[in-house]
Design a protein that fits this description.
It comes from Blautia producta. The chain is built from twelve helices and nine strands. The chain has helices at 3-16, 27-31, 40-50, 54-57, 60-65, 67-76, 87-97, 112-116, 142-147, 174-186, 203-206, 236-240, and strands spanning 20-24, 103-106, 121-123, 126-132, 139-140, 162-165, 189-193, 213-218, 230-233. The longest helix is centred in the N-terminal third of the chain and has 14 residues, at 3-16.
């Protein structure tokens, strides 16, 4: 089926759907202009610069025991993802306003959907915009973390501020997991953007989908694509901007 016909079919699916949910994967970071730290090229660059892998430095062990090194990495690498959103999410926001989209579930920590105007968003791995003192609970904006010279300390009790993002090896927030599972269980259309059915982040949730339409939109072919009802091999923005919302 030609891509134009697939896009027409996708529009029909969304219009007829009573409950559409989007899963936003790591491919959406690239679409917004940020290369995630787990991509081979970036992981190699990080290991060459810091002498350790992203999986080693972006951990609670480094945060607790080597906070200066952790925050140097956090500011120089992780916060580089604080960039503008994409047309895909702007389209998604219009879909939400028209009642065509119920929820976006994302594994990214940069709030790209919210920047576009989406409201019902589940950030499975937290957000760089939420920073809290683990001792007294005082909240700090992202600009405070960015402006800190070395280790950002609480102005009230001098404890190290904790970005509210999931670090490698940490347990997920069970409340967010339950909420994401509920959304997928209730969806009759599930759209995967920039990710696959075998995603390390999403596969545990996708198994709860029992709806009618499973749609995948990403650039590269994947062996799991055959399990979907509709697959469009292209950048999500090239598809969503043609939906007419």
């Amino acid at each position: 089926m030609e891509e134009e016909k697939k896009i027409e079919r996708l529009r029909a699916i969304i219009d007829e759907s009573a409950y559409t949910v989007i899963l936003s994967g790591s491919g959406m970071m690239a679409e917004c202009g940020y290369m995630g730290m787990k991509t081979p090229e970036k992981a190699y660059e990080i290991e060459k610069t810091y002498g350790v892998s992203p999986e080693d430095i972006f951990t609670s062990v480094y945060y607790n025991n080597r906070p200066a090194e952790f925050f140097k990495f956090y500011r120089n690498e992780v916060l580089q993802g604080d960039v503008d959103t994409s047309e895909t999410f702007r389209t998604a926001a219009r879909m939400e306003q028209k009642g065509r989209l119920k929820c976006i579930i994302t594994g990214n920590i940069y709030e790209y959907p919210q920047k576009a105007g989406c409201h019902n968003v589940i950030n499975l791995h937290g957000s760089i915009y939420e920073n809290i003192c683990p001792h007294c609970g005082r909240k700090y904006p992202l600009k405070y973390i960015k402006a800190s010279k070395k280790v950002p300390l609480c102005e009230d009790c001098s404890r190290v501020i904790r970005p509210q993002v999931a670090l490698f090896g940490e347990m997920m927030d069970s409340r967010l997991m339950t909420k994401a599972t509920w959304e997928i269980e209730n969806a009759d259309t599930l759209i995967l953007l920039g990710t696959t059915l075998d995603s390390e982040v999403f596969s545990k949730y996708i198994k709860y989908f029992e709806g009618r339409n499973l749609v995948i939109i990403h650039k590269e072919h994947h062996h799991s694509d055959s399990r979907a009802d509709l697959v469009i091999w292209d950048e999500p923005r090239n598809v969503f901007t043609k939906l007419g919302y």
